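Lab notebook, bench 4. Still working through the backlog of constructs that have no structural model yet. Next entry is a single chain of 401 residues. Request: give me the structure tokens for it.
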Amino acid sequence: MPIAQGVREALASSSLIRKMFEEGTELKKKHGPGKVFDFSIGNPDLEPPEAFHRVCARLVREDPRGSHGYMPNAGFPEVREALAKKASREHRCTIPPSHIIMSVGAAGGLNVVFKSILNPGDEVVVSKPYFMEYRSYVTNHGGKLVEVSSGPGFSLDIEAIQRALSKETAAVLINSPHNPTGRIYPEKDVQALSDLLRRHGEKTGRRPYLVADEPYREIVYEGISVPPVLSAYEESIAVTSYSKSLSLPGERIGYIALSPAIADPDDTLGALIYATRILGFVNAPALMQRIVARLTEERVAVEVYARRRAAFKDVLDGAGIEYAEPEGAFYIFAKVPPGQTADDRAFSDCLKRRLILGVAGSSFQAPGWIRFAYCVEEELIRSSAAAFTAAVEDWSRPSRT
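Model written out:
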């Protein structure tokens, strides 16, 4: 029997990140792990904080009756209360526990949000480059992703966003710290975007949601802070996870937080809870909920990522490759160096011949760039220097085979 046409079309352009990851696995089998420089996937290699292991072991030992049963679809009340306090600190406002919905990671949370707010044909505006699976998260629920160009240094281009807004605009989606660039949008840009959405709402009678995807909020460098969204704009929704901040990507735990000033909170919360149930999540994992509620002050050793960022910058500087300065997350977005073409896929292939794996920027709607993930050992990053230099020399030659 045939598969769904929409899925067939998606498979034809399926994730290059996963493809590169799988190729890396095969190359490591052939050449040995230490000889393959795999910077393809944002799979954090740091172990969770020691407190995670202590809390996990304690909760498993205690294991009171009913710990692994169903709870309200939104999550355990005591967990929502703990995370409401955390979100309140981060977003500089008082968020009631009822405005927290536990989710199956940020990806699950975004799907719940878009299921809740989108009608067929509604539009979601996003700045390029962007995480490639956003398109699927929107089209999963009948929406249309509308792309706009970013400003200098991959900043928000408020004028471009304004031109893209229409009466069909249901939401603007932002991601800060940003994947793939590491950019953190400054508070003035968040405020300018909020003001724009208010004006648009007054003009059209429909105020779009501002949806903030924030799984990297706690991975920042040089004292930079991520501005609050939930206190900046009334119709805002933040989605986050513990995949990066606690190195728990496989545990699939996160949450959705709503602005305390959101209009019709009962309707919105009811929709999010309903979507959590009928999308098949039912509820976020029970044990992980209880664990993260006790770890609101914990995070991975960001200073390790900072050292790796510095090491990667040294490597790229030595090879003569330009890049965007990452302010957060653990990616470095590098520009394809001068050659006969600026084709990022061709340069990705050139790197692969030197056993370097990165993801072509075209996958993020940013041709001419390559994303490298530095959530790997610093030694591996530094040992890649000669391979990067050789790859650039290969690339600069008139003929490449």
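Notes after review: The chain has a mean pLDDT of 94. The radius of gyration is 22 Å. Flag for follow-up if needed.
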